[in-house]
Amino acid sequence: MPIERRYDDLKVGDKATLSKTITDADVVLFAGLSGDFNPVHLDEEFAKEGLFEKRIAHGMLGAGLISAVIGTDLPGVNSIYLSQELKFVAPVFIGDTLTAEVEIVKKRDDKKLITLKTTVRNQRRENVIEGEAFIKKFEPKSSSR
Asked: What's the CA gap between 13 and 2, in Å, rounded?
């Protein structure tokens, strides 16, 4: 269930996480949604000859977990994603369990802007994605929903 947090209740140092095990179905569905049919993601025989010697998940599939944390937990509902810097620092394999973490590192009160450190780790606690997000927080125009 998405969480609605007010800007004034958010503090530098606040963190939130979301975990998901990446399945073959996730990779196939993401390929269909994104149009990225690179065989390194979909063809085991092709991937055996590559850098990682087996199929890897799309980097943006892991990055999508960051978006899920931002939109549903921290800062949560009524947050607008303005930008995201990403560094893909290690591969994600099918069967890996990823944990996306966001941490508030800066707030700009006059415009309700939030800077987040964003990290995705695998089950071995190795960073696979590192970055920074910039978010605009707003209050709903009407409290009746």
From this structure: 20
What sign for the dihedral angle of Cα 17, 21, 27, 30?
Answer: negative
pTM of the model: 0.92
CA distance linking residue 124 with residue 8, whole number of Å: 35
Q: Which domains does the chain have, with CATH numbers?
A: 11-137 (3.10.129.10)
> What value does the mean pLDDT of the chain take?
95
